[in-house]
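I can't quite decide. Please look over this sequence plus structure tokens:

:::
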Amino acid sequence: MQSFPQDIITQNGAQMYDLITYLSGKRPPGQASQKAIATANQANAKDALKVLLNQYEELINYLKVNGAHLNTVRPEYLLNTGDYTKFLKMFPKEENMKPKVVERVFPYIAMESWLTIFY
């Protein structure tokens, strides 16, 4: 937990899926395999980003359907800083943060989002 949430981000939320499975007895839908992410990453960085965004969106929706209050969490907030920068380039109208602001502020947004999901 010393490098929270970086450990979770680098493993694409695998610990969260394991925790939900352990606590509820059901595996949340939509978890992309490491192989699928690697294959998408080799094909195109945008494809890999879309796979991760879809995975996180399905996780958030699953938790919301089961009673979680996650109105402040967006799928892109669960990405690492590099992927979030790619996301901003893909969808420039989503956020108006400059690259230096992203580097400074985004780690706190990601940490808050992951903590909200854990709660």
